[in-house]
Design brief:
Layout: E1 5-9, H1 13-25, E2 29-34, H2 37-47, E3 51-55, H3 64-74, E4 79-83, H4 85-88, E5 102-104, H5 109-142, E6 146-151, E7 156-159, H6 161-167, H7 171-174, H8 179-182, E8 184-187, H9 197-204, E9 208-209, E10 214-217, E11 223-234, E12 240-249, H10 251-265, H11 275-291, E13 297-305, H12 307-314, H13 316-332, E14 339-344, E15 347-353, H14 358-372, E16 376-378, E17 381-383, E18 386-393, H15 401-417, E19 423-425
Parallel strand pairs: 1-2, 1-3, 3-4, 4-5, 18-19
Antiparallel strand pairs: 6-7, 6-12, 8-10, 9-11, 10-11, 11-12, 13-15, 13-18, 14-15, 16-17
Length: about 425
């Protein structure tokens, strides 16, 4: 630093002049000498010195320690206190807990130079550290994800604005608290708390992803699905000093995934399972039959009678409304563990699980036909429709779902050939 400017604050005028002369001799600039805390604060605001050299024993409305705090906190100018040996033991007026913050009187010029240079260097390092910290905070606050940083023991050190927004907590409310005391993470699959992440990150010294179904419980008790990871923070020696959590609110992504999943497995018009989901449940029934000797199931394949005529007469809008109503009626005829699916057009399939014999399946087929025969009032029109139903019972000849579904389809065509509004059992 070229020719640092130093403000001398000393109420003993002779000593103040001697200090000024010594400082100037050492190559420093001393534009001002003042004798009180109030005057020191005023002069700092006017002259912007690089350092204030101040007697710790000043009297006045504002004492030296109070003045020093104002100068350092408001103007960010370092203060080097001049202290007597007696004042060093005064706990009220002793800043000796801060490294390089004081010099004991009397002192030689060399001691004064060393103290001044160390105070200036300390201030330079602190400013550099503050700038780096401010830059780091700017980066963290600019990240598009929530960020929470803890020490190695799990105590929260900081959180960025997005973390505050998602969690509902303010940084001032939770800094210094153990993270599990304020942030509750739940695995939606198991219902268990996810409180092992931090310990595992520290133990393994590696980045760990949050569980796929991780739910954050917010300050007000809300539930937000989140995703991302927790990573160790290491110093230059590779030692872990803390953990950084980064996460995002993935509610929109979960909704998109749910919609994609529903589109993949459910019929868009009726909301019934589609062919893909029906075949998967049929495969599961086959697997259960392999494990249970007395487990029987049946497939019913339905085709509406005269649906094309309704479409042609009233339009496809009426046809769609009819299919939705039929889907609801079919669902009402089944037990909670059964499945009804729409295969497309006016074709439906039913999976009846854990039945005793074919008679139970035919009874449900009759119930379906009786329900469908009841008049439907749609858009001011009264419609009556029936269905041809093919029934097949699980047996040793069925080695995979496709064969069983094919037999039910064959039986359905037989029912149509027999005059519609009928059912036929594949034998």
């Amino acid at each position: 630093m070229d020719c640092p400017k130093i403000l001398v604050v000393e109420d003993e005028k002779v000593l103040a002049v001697d200090i000024r002369n010594s400082l100037q001799k050492l190559g420093y600039t001393v534009p001002e000498i003042t004798d009180s805390g109030e005057a020191a604060i005023k002069k700092v605001a006017e002259t912007h010195p690089n350092l204030v050299l101040m007697d710790i024993c000043l009297t006045g409305t504002i004492d030296a320690v109070q003045a020093g705090d104002i100068i350092q906190n408001n103007f960010h100018v370092p203060v080097l206190y001049l202290m007597e040996y007696a004042a060093q033991n005064n706990s009220h007026q002793n800043p000796s807990h801060e490294l390089f913050s004081y010099i004991l009187k009397p002192f030689a010029e060399k001691d004064l130079q060393i103290a001044v240079e160390m105070a200036l260097y300390k201030n330079h390092i602190q400013k550099k550290f503050s700038l780096e910290k401010e830059h780091l905070l700017t980066v963290i606050n600019s990240i598009g994800s929530a960020v929470i940083i803890t020490d190695i023991g799990g105590c929260i050190q900081m959180m960025n604005p997005i973390a505050e927004e998602i969690t509902g907590w303010k940084q001032s409310e939770i800094v210094g608290k153990e993270i599990t005391q304020t942030l509750c993470l739940i695995d939606k699959e198991t219902g268990e708390e996810v409180d092992y992440i931090l310990k595992q990150v520290v133990k393994r010294s590696q980045v760990l992803a949050l569980p796929d179904n991780c739910i954050l419980i917010t300050k007000d008790g809300g539930e937000i699905p989140i995703g991302d990871n927790a990573a160790p923070i290491c110093d230059r020696n590779g030692d872990i000093t803390g953990v950084v959590f980064t996460f995002q609110d993935i509610s929109e992504r979960k909704l998109r995934e749910a919609r994609l999943l529903r589109n993949a497995f459910y019929d868009a018009l009726t909301s019934l399972p589609n062919r893909v989901l029906f075949l998967d449940r049929l495969r599961q029934a086959f697997e259960r039959a392999k494990r249970r000797n007395n487990f029987h199931f049946a497939v019913l394949f339905l085709d509406l009678d005269g649906f094309k005529g309704i479409n042609d007469r009233f339009g496809h809008g009426m046809g769609d409304d009819l299919l939705v109503a039929i889907a609801q009626r079919l669902s009402s005829c089944l037990r909670s563990g059964d499945t009804v699916a729409r295969f497309g057009g006016d074709e439906f399939a039913v999976l009846l699980e854990d039945i005793k014999d074919v008679r139970e399946a035919t009874n449900i087929a009759k119930r379906i036909q009786d329900t469908l025969k009841l008049p439907l009032s749609l858009n001011g029109q009264e419609l009556i429709t029936t269905a041809s139903i093919g029934v097949t019972l699980s047996s040793s000849r069925h080695d995979e779902p496709g064969n069983m579904l094919r037999d039910a389809d064959v039986a359905m065509y037989r029912a149509k050939q027999q005059g519609k509004a009928n059912f036929s059992v594949f034998v």
